[in-house]
Amino acid sequence: MSRYVVSALLLAGCSETYSGGEDDPKGSSEDSAVETDADTDSDSDTDTDTDTDTDTDTDADGDGDIDADGDGDLDSDTDSDTDTDTDTDTDVDTGTASCPPSGPDFTYVVETLEVAGSRDGLDLDGDGTSDNVLSVIKSSLDDSIVDAMATTTSVIIVQLWNVDDWCEDPDVYGGILSATDTDGNVADNYSGSEAFDAGSAIDSSGHSTEVGTVVIASSTWSITVASASFEAGGFTLTNATPVYGVGTADDASIAGTMGFALPATLMEEIAAAEGYDPDLAWSLADIDSDGDGTYDALSIAFEFTGVTGSVY
Ligand SMILES: [Ca+2]
Ligand SMILES: [Ca+2]
Ligand SMILES: [Ca+2]
Ligand SMILES: [Ca+2]
Questions:
Q1: φ, ψ for residue 308 (rounded to 5)?
Q2: Which of 132, 135, 201, 219 is deepest in the core (most CB within 10 A)?
Q3: What pTM value is reported for the model?
Q4: CA of 279 to the centre of ligand 3 (A)
Q5: DSSP secondary structure letters along 134-203
Q6: What is the mean pLDDT of residues 277-300?
Q7: Ligand 1 centre and the CA of 211: distance in Å?
């Protein structure tokens, strides 16, 4: 229905349903056969349009625009912005919600970490399927992680900075690093305000020296870090592919999945230490990280949650 038709219908109904108002009280002295207003149109008010209210448009409400709602803009919804969507925000876009953060920089300490399920990995080699071959040792690795995290002073830190909007922000940076809990009490590490010693893993501005690119779209962040090194299950994990991550975050918490490939040479060491046949590392290898036609790395993905903390 066009705006003209809406206005016309309202005008038609107005003469019968109008119940009076300060603008143009029906039955007042002005409503006589002889007009007392100064304009030259056919109605009884003082403006120059042909309707019976005192504003300058042709609809029956008291605002200055030509639509039929009561707000002052020209669109057909009832919020106060100038776009035509039906949301209640005040932006001028097409309705994408705005999620302003409390600040631009966020540091989280990983509180829970476990190997993702076999189908819940990330696509590391770009073939369209998720990669997480090490999910075959999920149960034993998860046990090692739980034991380690309960006692170790080494924590995993995830940072996101230059965050302007938790819903949509194409220009964010991030990093994944290890830091140390130095207060002798691992029980308070997830209080939301614990500080950790990141040593040389951060620069003078407090950000990870290994900088990843981050995009936030539809309230989901995704990160690519060319190089990252962190400890899990008592091992220092290095990556044969970039580290990829995806998840959600807000001012207080973060959750997501991180995926990367571990060099088969590293996995030989881990397999031996864990009592497995080192050759297992090569038989499981599923990623050709250097493109020479031979698998040389093993994909893995972790699901994690974290809470705010800080690094120094
Ligand atoms: Ca893949
Ligand atoms: Ca930004
Ligand atoms: Ca502590
Ligand atoms: Ca290779």
A1: -65, 150
A2: 132
A3: 0.68
A4: 39
A5: GGGGHHHHHHHHHHHHHH-SEEEEEEEES-S-SS-EEEEEEEEEEEE--SS-GGGTTSS--EEB-GGGB-
A6: 94
A7: 24
